[in-house]
Each structure stands twice: as C-alpha cells, then as structure tokens.
C-alpha cells in the first residue's frame, strides 16, 4: 500500500501541490500537516503515518526534505523504515528504495550525512580544545553556586533532612543532586541497608 505524507511549514501555505502529486502516484492514504520541519519539531501527523505503515508498505513524499530539515534526521527515518521492511519513495528526486539507483542514492545521502556529522564533531572537539587552552571549560554552566554547594554539604552533614528534600530545596532532581554530591549516594545506600 502506498502511504503519502505531505507537509508545509506554515499555516498560510497550501498542501494542494503535494496532495495532487501523491494522489497521482497512487497513494491510498495521505497524512497532512502544517508544521515546521525544523529538526526536533514534533510532527504528530508524521508520527501517525509512521505508526500506520506495515511491512511492504511504501512511504511516499513529494520531496525528500518533507521528512525533516536535518539530513541526519532524514536518514534515521529512512533507516528505520528499511528495518521495518517498509519502502520509501520521494517523487521529486526519484528516490525509490526498491530500485538499485534509489538504494544507491539513499546510501550516498547516508554517507554524506555521516561525513557532515563527523566534521561537526571534529570542529566541536577542536573548539573545546582551543577554549581549554585559554582556560575556559566547555559544557553547560553549573546550576549551583558555591553558596548552594556549601548549603547542600551542610544539610548532608547534619543528616536530618532526606536527600530528596535537599535536592528539591536546591532545585535539582535526585540524579542531578548525586552529580554534585556523589558521596551522598554511598551514605544513603549505607543508611538504607540496616
């Protein structure tokens, strides 16, 4: 069964062009939405289309970028389809996972996505090394100030307040609390054992 997916980025855009192309291609069911394709954006109709697909079905899109803005995200989706024995077609680029040419083109896109991901990773590591050489440490800024850390230590030493309450007072989850105070995990396990 051919299942179509059509998407436009804004509510004032029209789905007619994509809908017509998907119907001409023989799609028996078409999922449509007006949502941004930005990487990480929730797309409920796209998720519904993926859930609807069964082995041997074909997901058809008007253009490859309808799967998402990120090439890595697109390739993850296509890889997930292939693992479920679901075919894929993009009408504009003529990608068809059932043909040798289509599989080759998808593999080339996958290789390119992996290449750019590796390049990005290398640039990030080089940037972190350069920042470290200048005395800057990478990563997210610490949530707790020195005063908060001292208060947390004092409450732990007192031993009268449960870890969960200390974490809540400091605005942390229990796991986050243990990142700041790993010794508290050992003492809470010891206290719980007897």
Give a description of the structure.
The protein is of the alpha/beta class and 194 residues long. The protein folds into two domains: 2-110, Resolvase, N-terminal catalytic domain (Rossmann fold, 3-Layer(aba) Sandwich); 146-192, Arc Repressor Mutant, subunit A (Orthogonal Bundle). Helix 5 (146-158) packs antiparallel against helix 6 (163-170) and helix 7 crosses helix 8 (182-192). Helices cover 54% and strands 12% of the residues. Strands 2-1-3-4-5 form a five-stranded mixed sheet, with helices on both faces.
C-alpha-based Rg, rounded = 25 Å
Q: What's the CATH topology name of the largest domain? A: Rossmann fold
Helix percentage: 40-55%
What is the molecular shape? elongated
The CATH architecture of the largest domain can be given as 3-Layer(aba) Sandwich
Distance between the termini: 62 Å
**Integer tally of domains:** 2
Question: What is the strand arrangement across the widest sheet?
Answer: 2-1-3-4-5
Strand content: 5-15%
Class by SSE composition? alpha/beta
The H-and-E topology, N to C, reads as EHEHEHEEHHHHH
Number of DSSP E strands: 5
Residue-averaged pLDDT: 83
Quaternary status = single chain
What is the count of DSSP helices, taking H or I runs of 4+ residues? 8
**CATH homology group of the largest domain:** Resolvase, N-terminal catalytic domain
CATH structural class of the largest domain: Alpha Beta
Which descriptors apply to this entry?
Rossmann fold, 8 helices, Arc Repressor Mutant, subunit A, five-stranded mixed sheet, disordered C terminus, alpha/beta, 2 domains, 194 residues
